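Hey all, sorry for the wall of text incoming. These are the two entities for the joint prediction.
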Amino acid sequence: MSVFLYNTMSRSVEPFKPISDEHVTMYCCGPTVYNYAHIGNLRTYIFEDVLKRTLLHAGYKVKHVMNITDVGHLTGDGDDGEDKMEKSARESGKSVWDIACFYTEAFFKDFDALHNIRPDIICKATDHISDMIALIKRLEVGGHTYIAGGNVYFSIDTFPDYGKLARLDLNELRSGARIDVDDNKRNPKDFVLWFTNSKFGEQAMMWDSPWGRGYPGWHVECSAMSMKYLGEHFDIHCGGIDAIPVHHTNEIAQSEAATGHTWVNYWLHGEFLLNDTGKMSKSSGEFLTLPVIIGKGYEPVDYRYFILGGHYRSQLRFSWQALDTARTSRKNLFDRIASLKAETAPASELGAVASKWAALFDEHLFNDLNAPRGLADLWGVLKDDAVPAAEKLAAAYGMDAVLGFGLETVRARKQEDELVDDPQALALVEQRAVAKKARDFKLADEIRAKLDTLGYIVKDTPTGTTLVKKM
RNA sequence: GGUGCCGUACCCAAGCGGUAAGGGACAGGUCUGCAAAACCUCUAUGCAUCGGUUCGAUUCCGAUCGGCACCUCCA
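and here's what came out:
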């Protein structure tokens, strides 16, 4: 069965066909490590992870590359913005290198906690300056650059297809009111490839180059690194939807101007996570990070479940109520898995009915990553009486390879009880059993209340009383 | 000014031409001294409004109303 993906370039769902039979080549824009990632940023990485897992599930080998932007990402367009890394360093009194290191570590802590599979190659911009310089030289030889005010610019007028991804109408843009006027630029949409001077003074990060000592522009890093690791023509490039009009548009211009041919076949973009006021950002509203959510008693997978409940190409509005719902659902899901595990081992093969569910799941995920449908299929097989327990478990594990909840690591239910080894609590359970037998329900209820304050929930089942630790 | 998206039950959210997935919540049931837990069952003749196309529209087209994002650093 083939995989279908929505390609931003064509604005339509297309059958996915990789360039090489060997493996799928995929590049994802990574974080700029000047601050913590908020949960909206994290949504995009979950989407990319589901994409990667779906391709793996479909039988492809995937070569996944992600960058770490630790230099060159400005706070503003043109050559008048301050470097985000430098700004953060100045404000915190640390070195830019320390800042990058600290936030990179924090980023991957979140990344891993959400069960995202790590990219095969993680590349830092500062380790690839020579590759960027080589690319800029190539553009220079091709006549796509000019120097003004000490900086090297890319001239978009030398690239006729400029703006094709975003379907920009350059005439409209030129007359628009929101374009900064920059006297150095021949065209307002031209952008810097290499900076040698900044009005914010000396940068800590500077390298020698044919154009003088300086540092690279933001867009050039992704072009240089992706081509280094994936070749000059690769399959998939993803990122957030906001990257379409500027970052990815400029990447395409540089890359295709340099090579003279198509650079990427499929462009996939994740939609935004919104909050009450609109777009989630670092400057407005509560700055929500994964640690904040964990601090309020949620598991990282609760957030993953919440995200998978919506389609990656739809805006999703975050609310605590929605996260509560996701957490309850996820707990219920894990409870079912725990019960099944206590009962049986996963089947080695699926019967006809379970196979039908598995096929349905594949069909939905292979159709532009319909994770909400996939989730419904997971519930479907778990609730289908026609499917034996062992097959339910096996089918659930199969689907989880894509959904990534980590169902195989869920503890079997019976082991829950064994966790309680508090002698005081166990003694109280004994006392309550005696009281119940004597029909002294008042005492029994008092003991139950006491256990509650100790942090245990009493469950009376047909086979006896058990204790469960409160979550 | 330009570009794109969305309005589906109490909430979240799929479906996008053939008669409404799933989850949560609520309610009922089994069990139980009661409760919790668990399990089962149930919840939209209707998908913002009004027109149009069609044998047939939530799905296509047009208009209207109401949200949102992007064109500026942003995932």
